[in-house]
């Protein structure tokens, strides 16, 4: 089938997601920028970005896919610099511009390798000829390039700094970026999953790099006070988790993760103005910090629910996924167990029922998405265990930071995390040294002069 465009059931789902998020963000922007003289310019750039993302989704030709991928980056660049005189926005745009050009070069290499191997530019023909179990040198090169593109697009450490600094841009830009565009790395790997799965090296590279990024970024997010910065670090962590799921071959879980993360981050950023109200409401309600015994009870109950579901329906096929779902169920039950009073039994019954319903919805959605994706890559048991250990280490470190902050190694860990692991500082220095931005340097100099005059 020789067509520039192709719409599959998976792509229809993604287009539906884009339609919902796009309408919501455009509607929010229309109201939020009602007093801005440049509102038409912002809305034009926003619509161009959404249109470019749609073109990426429906493209069935390597060259068209690449051109749409470039268009997304260029239109996003205009949105990031909507307020061009902000130094941090300039820095984020500069770093994002350079990383985007690198990812586009790597994507071009990957597509060139695929065309050389299969002698066709049509993506559906390439995938039809690809086998999970067979790989050549050319397809291995393509898989590695695609993995690197996804790691860059999903802002994995140490290429994450621009994502944190983009919070300087207007709130709708952050919502669009975190809920949609940053997911393109995962979507790319889902579209070319057979290519990726054919290379064990590419899969291990994602598991190691994205797995480490998931743990570090997740822990760093717990040290942040600013809600937008916390959400940005959380996005880097969640994107790493999604990439790990794809590398393990858990495609339906990654797709479910993608949808849930998109809706959650869109809501979180667009509703970030109410953070103070939520904080005050929590204080008035009287927060109770859970103790270790509360965690023990929650973990035990979560394990019982999951074990019963596994015994009856065999819902879990991956050890890493089992650990992740177990910790999620335990976290859901924790607030009810923490606050103990006469209403606890009723609240606990409701929470347990809710946990069972969520687990049922999760397994049902995963089953249907597996049929929708139509891919069944073999699970690497060693990689599965490695990822499970990463999840356990993330949980253990977060518990240590919360309950034993005065222990010497925990103190050192907190300082390191509070500094963002110092990774972005090194990346920024290297970026400005190798590719200095004249406009950014001028803005920094002007900012320094203003601060000097004020002092």
Task: Explain what the structure shows.
By secondary structure, the chain is mainly α. The chain folds into 2 domains: 9-272, no CATH class; 288-377, no CATH class. It is 78% helix and 0% strand. The protein contains 21 helices and no strands. Helix 1 (9-32) runs parallel beside helix 13. The relative contact order is 0.09. The model is unreliable at 450-455 (pLDDT under 50). This is Probable inorganic carbon transporter subunit DabB. It is found in: Cell membrane; Endomembrane system; Membrane. Keywords: Cell membrane, Membrane, Transmembrane, Transmembrane helix, Transport. Belongs to the inorganic carbon transporter (TC 9.A.2) DabB family. Forms a complex with DabA.
Main features:
ND/Mrp_TM, 2 domains, NU5C-like, single chain, disordered C terminus, mainly alpha, 21 helices
Structural class: mainly alpha
**Global mean pLDDT:** 87
Unreliable runs, pLDDT <50, ≥5 residues? 450-455
What is the domain tally?
A: 2
Assembly level? single chain
